[in-house]
Amino acid sequence: QQEPSGAPLEDNAEDGPGRQEKVGILAKGRAWYKELFYGPEKNAVRTALGLAVFNQFSGSTAVTNYAVEVLREIGLEDNKKGILLSSGISFAKLIGIVASMFLVDGVSGRRPLLIGGGLGMSACMVLLTVGIEVKSIPLVITAESLYMLSFAVSWAGIFWVLMSEIFSMRVKAVAVSLATSVLFAGGAVANILYHVLLKKGGPLFGLFFALVSLSSAAYVYVFVPETKGKSLREVQRMFQNLGPRGLLGPRALEPQEGQRLIGDGAAKSSNSI
Questions:
Q1: Would you state the pLDDT for residue 79?
Q2: Is 182 in contact with 53 (CB distance < 8 Å)?
Q3: Is the pLDDT assigned to residue 269 strictly greater than 60?
Q4: Are the C-beta atoms of residues 206 and 70 closer than 8 Å to each other?
Q5: pLDDT per residue as tens digits for the range 49-85
Q6: What letter does residue 244 receive in the DSSP assignment?
Q7: Minimal CB count within 10 Å: which of 53, 92, 201, 270?
Q8: Distances (CA, A) of 243 to 37, 122, 249
Q9: According to the CATH classification, is domain 25-240 in 3.50.50.60?
Q10: Integer distance in angstroms from the first to the last C-alpha of the chain?
Q11: What DSSP line would sit under 62-126, residue for residue?
């Protein structure tokens, strides 16, 4: 069976001892960038890279790395006390990750958690900006802890869940490696940007990351279909049907749907005669 793009869909469940073993695109000697960005799974690859960028540019790593520095900026000179206070952020992250384990395949799914997490992180960044401006240590700690809770229950783990769900074995190794590279590179850039804005940005410090977090929720709403309970074949179909407007645009018809509509039209024409 083939999709409209002409490339066969792959499902791990169909692999058997009597079937030729699938080989990754690097082992086959193909140009990996052409396969990833112009092949049948190009939409899934682009979505994964977008998720990697938003995952880090929302400030997720920097909030933890610069928690003590933020407290120092608003007047807390005691480093030991700063480390003790910022430990609440790590505790909030632990709670969020545990909660995500039960929610991702339970009552929620991937899309609602990612969208809700992005909105929550955005609100917390605004709250953090207010806390820094009024130099309120309790408000800053609360905002950072709630931010990390929002991130941990959503983007922290679900990013890796999606990486395991949206690619066939043919491209998974290269695609996940590329997305991971973008993730860590984005984290390095976001850390530098976070520090620069903290020192010189004033209110723009938190508002920039609030806007990025808000944009991450919008990105998921438009470009990330729900994969909960779907097979690889179904997930691939959903991504191949994505147009420039993502889930907001018209869905491409699958071949069997087109044939059914043609058949229905022919039947109506014959009946009218």
A1: 80
A2: yes
A3: no
A4: no
A5: 999 999 999 998 999 889 988 888 888 878 888 888 8
A6: T
A7: 270
A8: 14, 27, 6
A9: no
A10: 36
A11: HHHHTHHHHHHHTT---HHHHHHHHHHHHHHHHHHHHHHHHHTTTTS-HHHHHHHHHHHHHHHHH
Distance CA 48, CA 152 (A): 18
- Candidates 132, 146, 143, 148; CA nearest to 76 is 132
Q: Could you give the 3-state DSSP secondary structure of residue 246?
A: strand
Contact by Cβ (8 Å): 128, 206: yes
Two structure tokens written together for 177: 């490696």
d(CA 56, CA 235): 25
Q: How far, in whole angstroms, is CA 128 from its chain's centroid?
A: 23
Residues 6+ apart with CB under 8 A from 46: 37, 223
Q: Where are the domains of the chain?
A: 25-240
As a whole number of angstroms, the distance between CA 84 and CA 95 comes to 18
Question: Which residues sit opposite 2 in a β-bridge?
Answer: 8
pLDDT band at residue 203 using 50, 70 and 90 as cut-offs: confident
- Asked if residue 252 lies in contact with residue 4, where contact means CB atoms within 8 angstroms, the answer is yes
DSSP 14: G
Segment 159-198, tens digit of pLDDT: 999 999 999 988 999 999 999 999 999 999 999 999 898 8
Yes or no: say if 4 and 255 are a contact pair by the CB < 8 Å rule: yes
Give me 47's structure tokens: 């979505």
Number of Cβ atoms within 10 Å of the Cβ of 107: 8
